[in-house]
Amino acid sequence: MSSVQTITAVLTLFAGIGVFLTACGMMSSNLESLGSNKLRDLFAAASRSKLLGVSMGALGTAAIQSSGATTVIVIGFVNAGIMSLAQAATVIYGANIGTTITGQIVAWGISGEGGLSSTVIFSGLAGIGAFIVSFASKEKTKTLGGILCGFGMLFVGLSMMSGAMESFAELDAIRNFLASINNVLLLVLIGAILTAIIQSSSVMTSVAITMVVAGLITLDQGIYLTMGSNIGSCVVSIIAGMTGSTNAKRASYIHLIFNVAGVVIFLLLGQAIKLFSGGAVTFGTIFDSFFPGMPQVELAMFHTVFNVVAVVLILPLTNLLVSLVSRIVPDGPEQEKATKTFYIDDNLLGTPPIAVQQVKNEIVGMAGLAQRNFEAAISMVESADFGDKESFIKVEEELDYLNREITRYVSKLLSGQLSTRDSNYLSHALRSVSDLELVGDYAESIVTCCEELYGAGDHFSNTALQEIQDLAGMVDDLFAQTLRAYDTSDEDEVVKAGITNIAIAEQVSQMSANHVVRISMGKCSPDAGSTYLALVSDVEHIGAHYYNVAKTVRDA
Predict the structure, then answer these.
(1) Is the model more confident about 130 or about 345?
(2) Tens digit of pLDDT for each residue in 138-178?
(3) CA distance 182 to 271
(4) Residue 461: how many CB atoms within 10 A of its CB?
(5) Which range has highest mean pLDDT (33-47, 115-129, 353-367, 368-382)?
């Protein structure tokens, strides 16, 4: 083979890997969009039992075609305190099983004696899917077309990689070099390093399958390369964990220890089998006896069996594993930040449907903080006691922080690939966050004005205080209606919130008129009257901002 042919084969291999990775990403993003309302519930179900956690991890990974994405989602949940370490461990176990689906698709898509004739059929789906994406009008149809296109592109990439491998198989130097690598530890290391570089165990497994089919390596060599890919796949989760909380770091170590333990167990088992059989029996000969003449299926089946057995062996030891990583990564002296987000996490940005749901949860939590400060402001006005102002200020600082962080997070999400529905929701979410931050500002204005009034020795009349209390009760009702509307997308609650908002405006007008009468009768000082009118105006604005949040349900 000439130097030009060699360069062509190398470039074709890289092109095939690129197409394969792109296909995996396309399938992943479209499958996520299709199941956007179910993904979070799927992983949340892991809390019910260990076996259910494994099942959810396997199903979730099979659905989004990425164990790395699943593990990062889990680390994000752990970082946000939504999932415990033990629950995260079981989902991570399941993710290792789910990731073998890609290898099975590739293996069973290859047919013929070392050929890839059926690949042409599957590759054609890429064109059909692209046609659907280009001309379909419905969002769901476009998503299905994207899945079909991604699935077809898997085989386009596979065909290119296989063609490159067949070219390499003609070179005696390459065949002899690969044949000389018999050290199982070296093969595992190569598999781990290559997977860490391309950050996809699915691609590494698929490359190993094409090498086995082309005769470049033996089945046993492919098996150990695949085992190494399990260790290399931990790089993504380790990177994600290092930027998170203590428990997020522990979750990444659980992934690493679990995968390394599985490889160690099978390395020892493989050597024991070889020793007792005098070298006549290996993993390769065992799987060849079950699927004779189908090396691609033999390797894919080993990968699946390897991960299933590892889960079965380590699942009962989950609590011990959690204890171990808790010792490896002990609780540090670091103190909890005064301000923090509770749901959103940058590790979830790679799975937009779940990240969008977490944005909604964060906004609901922010709304609770805004209402807490409004109630605190009214309480201080009624009691003329500003002793809780320090905690009030801390909540106000947290509202300002959440406004910045949620806005930053939503901006990052909007720059990625989103469904029309999610994109529309996030656009309105930015406005909701601003509305809630303004609620905090108006509550702060109420406290500042009244503290100055009381500090000067002035006060509101009992009648004025009762009116303020009644008005605050109406805002409390509006907040409850807004929260129900926003959390459940209930149109009826939006209507109720609108009626309450109008009632608040009418009540403010009546209160203002009443207070003018009290001032004219000398029952209230001009300074108290001015502060009172400013206060009821602030409360009216708070109600209006709550209603703006409720209306986003209708607008979105």
Answers:
(1) 130
(2) 877 888 888 888 878 877 877 787 777 777 767 677 777 77
(3) 13
(4) 15
(5) 368-382
Contact 36, 419 (CB under 8 A): yes
The two tokens of residue 375 are 């109630």
* Residue-by-residue DSSP string for 484-535: HHHHHT-HHHHHHHHHHHHHHHHHHHHHHHHHHHHHHTTSS-HHHHHHHHHH
- Round to whole Å and give the CA distance between 475 and 143: 42
Cα distance from N-terminal residue to C-terminal residue, the chain: 61
User: Distance between alpha carbon 268 and the CA centroid of its chain, in Å?
Assistant: 36
The predicted pLDDT at position 115 comes to 45
Q: At which residue do the structure tokens 């179910």 appear?
A: 38
Cα–Cα distance, 471 to 478 (Å, whole number): 11
Both tokens of 89, joined, read: 């461990």
Confidence (pLDDT) at 335: 44
Residue 132: CB atoms within 10 A of its CB come to 18
Tens of pLDDT along 23-51? 766 776 676 665 555 555 665 565 567 78
* Cα-Cα-Cα-Cα dihedral sign, residues 528, 530, 531, 532: positive
Interatomic CA distance for residues 475 and 503, integer angstroms = 10
H or E element, residue 415: none
Report the run of H or E that residue 112 belongs to, with start and end: none
Tokens of 445: 């204005």
DSSP state of 329: S
Query: What kind and span of H or E run contains 227?
Result: helix 219-232
Q: How far apart are CA 182 and CA 207, in angstroms?
A: 18
Residue with tokens 């600082």: 397
Tally of residues, the chain: 556
Ramachandran assignment for 365, one of left (phi > 0), alpha (psi -120 to 50 degrees), beta (any other) = alpha
Q: Which amino acid does the sequence have at 360?
A: K
Among candidate residues 401, 444, 409, the one with its CA nearest the CA of residue 429: 409
Cα angle vertex 307, ends 18, 70, to 5°? 55
**What's the CA gap between 297 and 295, in Å, rounded?**
5
- Residue 206 neighbours by CB under 8 Å, 6+ apart: 20, 102, 103, 106, 158, 161
d(CA 554, CA 490): 9
| Top-confidence residue, 179 or 311 | 311
CB of 263 within 8 A of CB of 346?
Answer: no
Residue 217 has pLDDT above 80, yes or no: yes
Residue 283 CA to residue 292 CA, distance in Å, equals 13
- Residue 449 parent element (H or E): helix 420-455
Does residue 407 carry a pLDDT above 90?
Answer: yes
Span of 183-192, 332-341, 496-505 with lowest mean pLDDT = 332-341
